[in-house]
Structures are given as structure tokens and as C-alpha cells.
Amino acid sequence: MTEIVLKQGAEAKLYIGNYNGTICLVKERFVKNYRLPELDKTLSKQRIKAEQKSAKRCKDCGIKAPKIFHADFKERKVYMEYFDKAITVKDYIIEIQKDEEQIKLICQRIGNVVGKMHENNIIHGDLTTSNMLIDKNENDYELIMIDFGLSSYSTSNEDKGVDLYVLERALISTHSNLPQLFDEIIVHYKESYQASDETIKRFEEVRARGRKRTMIG
Q1: Per-residue model confidence as pLDDT tens digits over 113-150
Q2: Which of 126, 135, 140, 183 is labelled catalytic?
Q3: CATH number, domain containing residue 123
Q4: Which of 9, 44, 124, 144 sits in a 20 to 30 Å window from 34, CA-based?
Q5: Phi, psi of 7, deg, nearest 5
Q6: How far is CA 19 from the centre of its chain?
Q7: Are residues 125 and 19 in the same domain?
Q8: Would you say the pTM of this structure is higher than 0.85?
Q9: Which residue, 80, 102, 124, sits at the end of a domain?
């Protein structure tokens, strides 16, 4: 089967592949020559394991995530479920940005899913609208969480607060014309995560430290 590359970033490339006769998405974490070989090998293995564990944890608690078919540590490849009609939430928000009701609905879905992740102590590590999908095969456009390479399992409110800060910064950067997104998401985050008060407090502390660094330069 001819390799069809969908995306290539700094850490990995994504392409359409085949696993035991099933069309799938392959994420290949290529060698980074600027790193020490052993360090590069260790980081690659850690991130592949994180991908496996967090995707399974999400699915176990009712959050949609790609099914992981196989991980090949030697080849640095993860074979996973491919959502052929899915688009990123980033692109979806750009598409619907003038539709106030649809914007509120996608914020509700994001808040509910991130809240549920934190309720189950799943830290994504790279919460951006590029790492969330909307599957247009589904009538209700269910949110799909992807790209768990930087994810972890943690009960720490600090870690959850940092996760929220990453999301806020990503929204400001990517969707600067829709400044209401984060506040709307947080409303629904609190609905899904009953013990969110301490996490929100820690998030505000992280945000304050971030702003201080920005002012100081």
C-alpha cells in the first residue's frame, strides 16, 4: 500500500496505513538526530506508551479516543483507529465562528470532555483545538481526543491547572477573534468535574505566573 502522508510535525508524521487488513492511521516518531541516541530512544518509547495508556483510559471512562491497534517500539510506530471524515476542532470553530449557538455547543463539549478527563486524573499535556476532532460521520458531532504523547496520569491539581493554562493559551493564539471561548468552556468544565474548585484556583496561580514571566520578558 502506498504511504499517504497526512501531516508531518516536529516529532512525528501521520499517514494512512494497514493493520491486519484494517485501514488505520499510523503515527511514526522519527529519529531526532540532534538528541543523544539513547535519550531519543527513551523519549520515543515514553511517548508511545503514554499514547497507548491515555487513549485506553479515555475510552474506559467514556471519552472518545482512537483505538490503539498496535505499538511497534522498534519502528517507533503506533497503529490506531482512523476517522476518515473527522476534522480538527480548530478547523470546525473557524467554519462556525459566526454561529453563536454552535460555538456555545462546541464549548460545552470541550468543557465536558476536559472536565471528565480531569475527574479521572488524565492529564492531556497538549490541550489545543488541533488535538481534538469532530467526526462528521456522527450525527451529534461527538468530540474525539487525540495526540496523547505528552499525557500522564496525575491526581495533582497543579498538573490539571497547567493543562487548563495550555488550553487557554492555545485558544488565545489560535482563535483570538473569539475571546469568549475559554470562559464558556470553563462553565461546562465545572459541570463535569465536581471537585474542580481547587484545580481552578491552581490554574489562576499558573496563569498569574505566566503573566509575570511575560511582563518581565
Answers
A1: 999 999 999 999 999 999 999 987 666 778 999 999 99
A2: 126
A3: 1.10.510.10
A4: 124
A5: -160, 145
A6: 24
A7: no
A8: yes
A9: 80
